[in-house]
Amino acid sequence: xxxxxxxxxxxxxxxxxxxxxxxxxxxxxxxxxxxxxxxxxxxxxxxxxxxxxxxxxxxxxxxxxxxxxxxxxxxxxxxxxxxxxxxxxxxxxxxxxxxxxxxxxxxxxxxxxxxxxxxxxxxxxxxxxxxxxxxxxxxxxxxxxxxxxxxxxxxxxxxxxxxxxxxxxxxxxxxxxxxxxxxxxxxxxxxxxxxxxxxxxxxxxxxxxxxxxxxxxxxxxxxxxxxxxxxxxxxxxxxxxxxxxxxxxxxxxxxxxxxxxxxxxxxxxxxxxxxxxxxxxxxxxx
Length: 286
Known about the structure:
Order of helices and strands: HHHHHHHEEHE
Radius of gyration: 25 Å
CATH superfamily of the largest domain: Cation efflux protein transmembrane domain
CATH architecture of the largest domain: Up-down Bundle
Structural class: mainly alpha
Distance between the termini: 39 Å
Strand content: 5-15%
Largest sheet: 3 strands, mixed
CATH topology of the largest domain: Alpha-lytic protease prodomain-like
Strand order of the largest sheet: 1-2-3
Number of helices: 8
């Protein structure tokens, strides 16, 4: 658990440092050359800085242990702050979409510079490195903040590649591609933001445990020959984990001590799953 929060914090810090560096060089060269796609890319980096800050803050709050006011910990902070990230991405996308469309209508022409090409290459290298780092962490730890950052770094690699293509196209006097790439970038950011929003919203609205994990729980219960029937399985998310509540039916002649020992044993089995925070089992006679 400690490694999960520590490494997520480190990923957030790396993201902030990398994106501040990229924002400075992208914005400077973008405005000098009047490249709408590079300006859009710099605005995307500004959004990335916000996302990395939200990752660091959300991770810090989520790592706090349970207390008297928060009996199940602070895990949902991950999803609250990922919601902030998704909203910021959607707002940035609409602004970029408007600017890019206006650039096409007004037929703005960018000034080609090899500095633009160099900035794109640097961006791709930095973002691909951050993508690989967060990808490995997101596979190791199920964390929506890490996943959001990983997708963001991946998207930036693709977006900047298209920005590079639009810049090189101006060598053949194809200026309209710059505005078109800006539109494509904005749509890409919006789609990613909406996906993160939906996932965060579903968890905050107490989305149930996935069917695959539910099947595993049923299989665990069936391993106990004294459990006659399983009923009323429900779950509620607490961050990336879930509280599971279920009812088992046992022989009515079984002693209270034995039936509760059985329930305790099953609870330990279910709690061993990575996605489970705690299990509550009600025992009824059959």
